[in-house]
User: Fold this.
Amino acid sequence: MRIIDLILLLNDFNKNNRIFIEEDKQRYAVVDLESEPTGVYLKTSNKLKGLKNWEFLLLINKKEYYELPVYYDNKKNHHQLFGFRVDDDCILLG
Assistant:
């Protein structure tokens, strides 16, 4: 998924929902991002509170990011983001 697609989809949701990565029934809070020429990489934590939707949109809404794909890290390597779902006022990316 590209950043511009993610921005357009997330604009329809509550701005105070927290952003998480969901992997293998585990939730990891998205706390920051790192931009590289190959894509935008989401940084996660299982000890901190995740960013709220409005904070996340503020971080990713930069013209130079629009065409870049979104990745998230797990313990072994990077995975590209393909979609999300909403559960208990949380936006679960995966």
In short: Helices lie at 3-10, 53-60.
